[in-house]
Write the C-alpha cells for this entry.
Amino acid sequence: NQDLTFNAARAAFRKYGVEFGMEKYLGLGIYLQDENLFSNLALLLSDQCAHSIKTAVFGDDANTVFKDRKEFGGSVFAQLEEAFQYLLLCNRTAVIFKGLERVERPDYPEEALREALLNAIVHRDYGFSGSIIINVNDRETEFISLGGLLPGLSPDDIRSGISQPRNPKLAAVFHRLRLIESYGTGIRRIFELYASCPAQPRIEVSSHTFKIVLPNMNTAREEDAPRRGSASPVITGQMRKILDYTREHGQITDDQIQELLGLKKTRTYTLVRQMQESDLLLAEGRGKEKVYRIGRDETR
C-alpha cells in the first residue's frame, strides 16, 4: 500500500520536537528513494497501519469474564497514545493514611505500564497479522506480543538488559523521539520499580509469543500482609537459595547474594531486609565488613 498518510506520525514528531519531512523519510528509512516506494516501516508509522492493540478488562483472575474491551488501530503512534491513556484509566489508586498523612498508591507504576507497552510495540513480530493483547484483572496486567525471543536469547538475558531489536529501524525512530532511552533498559527499569513489591513481574516466552506480566501492587501488598504477620514466614525460592548457601558456608555477604541470584543492589537490599524482618537472617558487622548468618533455622 503506497497510498499512505502520516497525520499521527507528524503530530508525534512535533510533540517530541523532531522535524518530520522528506529528508527525515530518507534518513529514517521511511522512503526508499532508489525504488521510489514507501517502506514497511512507513506502513507501521502511517495512519493506514493494519496492525492493532486489543485490550480487555476482566472480572476474574482466569480472564474469562469481560468487564470492558477496546481495540486501538492506526499509526503505531496513535496506538501507543490511546492504549496508554486507556491503561491509565484502568490504573486504580488506593488511599491509605499514615497518621494525618494521606498516601495514594496506584495499582501499577505508571512508568512500568509505559515501558511494557513500548516493549510490546517496538519488539513484536509484524510479520504476523494478529494484535498485541493486553489483559487486565484485579491481580495483574499482562502484555502479549507476537514473536518469541530471537535465537540465542533467553528470558534471563532480557532481564539482565541484553537486547537484540527485532525491528531496528522502528526502534531507531522511537529512540530518536526519546520514547525509549536505549535498547534493553526498559525491562530492567520495570524490575527496579517493583523492587519493594512482594510480587515480581514475570516474563513468559513461547516460540511465537512474548509475555510480560505486571502484578497489581496493591493486591500483592494486601495478600502479603497476613504472611508478614504470621509466625512462620513464607520462604521464596530466592530466599531458599540464600539460606542454603549461608547454611553451607556459615555466612553470606551482599555481594555474594547479588552474584548468587543475579540481582541489582536495590532488589538485594529489599530481599535481605524482608529476611531480617522474618528473623531468617541476622546481620553482623557494618559497611564492607557486614555479613549475614542464619537466624531462625527454617528447614522447610
